Hints:
This protein is an alpha/beta fold. Helices cover 30% and strands 22% of the residues. It is globular and about 50 Å long. 40% of the residues are buried. Belongs to the HAM1 NTPase family.
Amino acid sequence: MRIVLASNNRGKLHELQALFAPLGVTLVAQGELFTGEAEEPYHTFVENALAKARFAASHTGLPAIADDAGLCVRAFNGLPGVQTAYYSLQFGYPKGDAYNVRALLEQMQHVRDRRAYMVSTLVGVRHAEDPEPLIAVGKVSVDIATAPRGSNGFGFDPVLCVPELGKTFAELTEETKNQYSHRGRSSRQMLELVRSYWLPEQ
């Protein structure tokens, strides 16, 4: 079974391919099948993920899974949230992981409460008009480190410290990150949903 991943983020594709491997399905990045990206005008992860999944399904005729994920900082009332990927732009930096990290550390320079959480919302549709999308949500509590640590992962991983491990996601192996991360948690839920509702009985 082929499923289009409604994203051109290579880091997400790599993580999700590894997590979905037990199902025997093939995840294909939408950029390999068509050009263009869905608009994400909404203020919640689930609405944006659903829009992306329907967009990819309509352009490919394949089942689609979309991930909308973000960082929610307690001291910032849950922001940047759905605007996480564009966080650096509001502070005059170009878009990009390194600039996002730099902007976040600058904004938190004098903030004592460094608690935050990462959210990953996965939405799956069998076709563009699917009336019953699959929805899986994973969350993980983190502390924002005072400086980047580690070289693995992507996004804010170098400054997302897992309290019980005392390490950032960028310091973890891929296997350990998938065990603890927001995307690992949502993917395990989605794996079971796809197995139960999309795949024929074995």
